[in-house]
Amino acid sequence: MLTSSSIGLLHMLVSYLLEPVLWLLMLLAALAVLDIGTLCAERIKGLSSWRRSGDVAGFERLAKKRIERSDFMARIAPMLGLMGTLIPLGPGLAALGDGELSILTTAMSVAFDTTVMGLLVGIVGFVIGRVRRRWYDDLLTGMEQAAGTRQVASGTHEPSHGELPQAAPVTEPALKAGVAHV
């Protein structure tokens, strides 16, 4: 029925993908553990040091990089988990047809393990990304407000996007003349 040489070639290529998928999934799991540590360090010390530095542009670059890494984990790990689920099922079902239950058992074990690991890493990436977005938004707002306060105090403040410019003071002679000083 299905004996085409292209099907055999496709099966061979897909079977070679299982090992790289497993290694990539383990690499992403290690990255998730490191990212949890980085998140804890940020909360304990990192965010306050960025707040004191006042380097908004530098912080925005770092924030973008870290959020992209979390988003990458949240998207890629479940895909790799799905690949790790489907790749061993073909040989496992073929082994079931031949009556070799031990091969099916191994294939099912790998399939479920990769699914769980992919989902776990994806959840960790998603949660870290959401927490970072909230922390970083709060920090950037505070840094921008602090920078604006310093500019107003020094007299070099220029209105930012959405901020109305300060009105010029109305002088006593202008009031008597009925004209405000602009």
Automatic annotation (TrEMBL):
User: What range(s) does the MotA/TolQ/ExbB proton channel domain occupy?
Assistant: 64-144
Q: Write one Pfam family the protein is assigned to.
A: MotA_ExbB
Q: Which domain of life is it from?
A: Bacteria
Keywords recorded for this protein, A-Z: Cell membrane, Cell projection, Cilium, Flagellum, Membrane, Protein transport, Transmembrane, Transmembrane helix, Transport
Give me the segments passing through the membrane.
20-41, 72-97, 103-128
InterPro entries associated with the record:
ExbB/TolQ_transport, MotA_ExbB_proton_chnl
Q: Where is this region: Disordered?
A: 150-169
Give me any GO biological process, just one: protein import
Note the topology in the membrane: Multi-pass membrane protein
Instruction: Name its cellular compartments.
Output: Cell membrane; Membrane
- GO CC terms: plasma membrane
Primary site of residence: membrane
Q: Which family does it belong to?
A: Belongs to the exbB/tolQ family.
What protein is this chain from?
A: Flagellar motor protein MotA
The organism encoding this protein is Pseudomaricurvus hydrocarbonicus
